[in-house]
Amino acid sequence: MTVAGDMRAPQHYVLTVLAVTVVLLTSIPAVNIAVDPYGYARLVGWRPANPNDAEASFAAGGAWPAPSGTREAKMLNVAYYQPQSVVFGSSTVWSHIDTGYAPLRGADGRPAFNFGLAGVSLREMEAAFAHVLALRPPARVLLGLEFYMFSADKATSPGFFELPMAQRQDYSGQLKRFVSSRLFTAECTFESQAQLWAPVTKRLRALAGGRALFRQPGPNFGIGVGAGLRPVDAVSASPGPGRTRDDFLRLMLDGDRVIISGLYPPPGQPFRFVDDAGWSSLEAVRRMVALARQHRVDLRIYLSPHHARAYEAIRLMGWWPKFEAWQRGLVEILAEDAAAHAAEPAIPLWDFGGYTSVTLDPVVTSVDSAGYSRFHDAIHFATAVGYMVIDRLLPTAAAQPMPDDFGVRLTASTVDYHLAAVRQTQQHYGVANQAEVSAVSEMLKSLGRLPPVAP
Predict the structure, then answer these.
(1) Long-range contacts made by residues 435-441, C-beta under 8 angstroms, separation at least 24?
(2) Exposure pattern of 51-62 as b/e (b: 16+ CB <10 Å)?
(3) CA-to-CA distance for 376 and 323, rounded, in angstroms?
(4) What gap in Å lies between CA 141 and CA 133, rounded to an integer?
(5) In-domain check, residue 167
């Protein structure tokens, strides 16, 4: 009996360990689904959504049920939101287009879905566009384009094309497998426990004098989860208290360095629309236009306004002929589409860039501050400018007055005249702002981005 009892003891121990392990392995996923700290269980219906008013507002911005408005969150959340109206674009859309503005709302009164992705490439935008239309075609789409997006060599964000996309086969299965992989991670488990223990940690934090007892989620601009600032929150707003004109212009040059290094091809590489494999950024737009026609989507395309200093950088880097070819290429695509659909309204293309009374935006100085009034930096406009863009694209009786030169409809019959007018105002800007243009040129020289001087 003693020997048998001794033999059963290890077996009993092993069985106990196995039982405890099974309980833990099953309870952790169950807790993560029940708490759902990152909203993934809500996305696939494993937990009821039931958003409050604040969460419903976040959902329109692509930041709920999955948080932060990252690429991953927006690709997932748009399936939950099922928008009737969508605005695609870069961080200028993410941060400065108010998708709750009345002209943008859908027929059901809900805000448009904000599909702004910081530093987006045309490859990413085309995939996101196809994803949205494959889920449930919205009635209307606004597409905000910027020159840098059209570099065929622009890298995509790591992991973006590993996300579930509705235009692929077995989307439902891919989505569930993806959500499972996110729910059953150490990070999700940690956050679930943190939320479960939140009342206790809140009390302990109070006793500790308000010091954080555990790690806090950091900013996240990429694919993953975690609290994420909007791009503009990382940019110093203007004008700023205690800032001189020279201080502000130095700050803008610092911002220019970051923008140019992050958005454009590396020094010494050309800006091209077609890569070595034959992929074309302009042809990607053609496919998006065809997809919108196929699903009878009211598509409106616009070229986002940048500050004049951004256009000077493009000129100084030697890419102005490419910039003009970009606009002509878009006009050609839409002209061919209009000819093929003569019985239907033409898809409009509006240019809000160039050297206009809005984009020239001089530095405003006062006793204790200096800054632009309509721009935060070279590419991020103020939300008030975003309202002007929408009022031009979707005019209503309540539209605000705006300068006549802000927003030009580009067609085959207007594009050459428009580009000639831009070149003329460009020359005037260079003469009137020689110091600022020279500073931008020196900044580009320091980055090795000025084209070689012909002998």
Answers:
(1) 436/249, 436/309, 437/312, 437/316, 439/249, 439/253, 440/253, 440/256, 440/309, 440/312, 440/313, 440/316, 441/316
(2) beeeeeebbbbb
(3) 23
(4) 10
(5) yes
Per-residue tokens: 301: 């395309």
Domain extent, residue 288, equals 53-180+225-446
φ and ψ of 438, to 5 deg? -65, -40
| pLDDT tens by residue, 218-260 | 333 333 333 333 344 334 445 556 789 999 999 999 999 999 9
**Which residues contact residue 373 at a Cβ distance below 8 angstroms, ignoring those fewer than 6 apart?**
238, 239, 361, 364, 382
Per-residue pLDDT tens for 45-81?
888 888 999 999 899 999 999 988 899 999 999 999 9
Residues 144, 21 share a domain: no
Q: Are residues 12 and 86 in the same domain?
A: no
Taking alpha carbons only, the member of 119, 112, 160, 117 closest to residue 138 is 112
Say yes or no: 60 and 14 in one domain.
no
- CA-nearest of 239, 429, 395 to 316 is 429
Find tokens 């991020």 and name the residue. 380
Same domain, 283 and 432: yes
Least confident of 139-153, 190-204, 264-278, 334-348: 190-204
The whole-angstrom separation of Cα 250 and Cα 236 is: 12
Whole-angstrom distance, CA of residue 8 vs CA of residue 10? 6
Q: Give φ, ψ of 250 to 5 degrees.
A: -65, -40
Q: How far apart are CA 87 and CA 342, in angstroms?
A: 26
Residues 57 and 138 in one domain: yes
